[in-house]
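TASK: fixed-backbone design
INPUT:
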């Protein structure tokens, strides 16, 4: 007698849609064939790999359960699938690649020993391609995200020298020189002086430079200094001779 979903399906059939047991068998199989849980294929076993944070014991248990439920998997294929699925750099994979176990029972014995050993260790050991153990990376202490593995951080650093106003002005002038000149609407660059104010003062004096540049700067020009202080203004010219009488 049909029960559960099969009984519900039977009651939902249209009247006179089944004429014989052969028709009933075909309709029943076609309707419930998708609900049948089929055994895994060998390809599914080849896709079973160890996760990046999965322990050897968890991977061995998961792989063994899948292997026992698969159909048509040869022993040589199972050995190859398990070895390829082990995480790179582990001692177990290095051992299997070196020894090459001939039977699946031998492989499971080796894997069980390494799984027991790994579960008893605080840090998992990893090896490179040559079989040398890789030193574990230093872990950041909990609660200190700014910790760095450098020993020179505790040394006293020399104080930075203070900058004078003249140095600051020089740096600002250099930054202004490096900054590209703004363009006008017509596409031509705006006018830009060839020298800044500070550079013009420190250049050879333009008031006393002829064919050769002056030996003093504009900032140190005594004539310009006197004009700035109001002492260098020339007196008005003397009156001219009187006009002759007509």
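OUTPUT:
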């Amino acid at each position: 007698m049909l029960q559960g979903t099969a009984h519900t399906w039977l009651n939902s059939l249209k009247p006179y849609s089944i004429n014989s047991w052969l028709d009933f068998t075909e309709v029943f199989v076609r309707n419930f064939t998708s609900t049948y849980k089929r055994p895994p294929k060998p390809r599914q076993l080849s896709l079973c790999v160890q996760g990046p944070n999965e322990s050897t014991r968890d991977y061995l248990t998961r792989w063994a359960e899948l292997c026992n439920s698969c159909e048509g998997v040869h022993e040589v294929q199972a050995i190859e699938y398990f070895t390829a699925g082990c995480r790179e750099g582990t001692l177990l994979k290095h051992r299997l690649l070196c020894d090459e176990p001939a039977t699946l029972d031998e492989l499971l014995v080796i894997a069980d020993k390494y799984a027991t050993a790994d579960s008893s260790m605080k840090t998992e050991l990893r090896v490179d391609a040559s079989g040398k153990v890789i030193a574990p990376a230093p872990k950041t202490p909990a609660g200190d995200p700014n910790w760095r593995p450098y020993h020179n951080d505790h040394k006293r650093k020399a104080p930075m020298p203070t900058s004078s106003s003249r140095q600051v002005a020089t740096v600002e002038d250099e930054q202004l020189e490096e900054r590209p000149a703004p363009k006008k609407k017509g596409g031509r660059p705006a006018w830009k002086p060839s020298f800044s104010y500070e550079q013009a003062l420190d250049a050879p004096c333009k008031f006393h430079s002829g064919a050769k540049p002056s030996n003093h700067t504009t900032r140190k020009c005594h004539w310009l200094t006197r004009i700035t202080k109001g002492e260098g203004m020339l007196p008005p010219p003397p009156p001219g001779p009187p006009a002759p009488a007509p």
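COMMENT: The chain has a mean pLDDT of 74.
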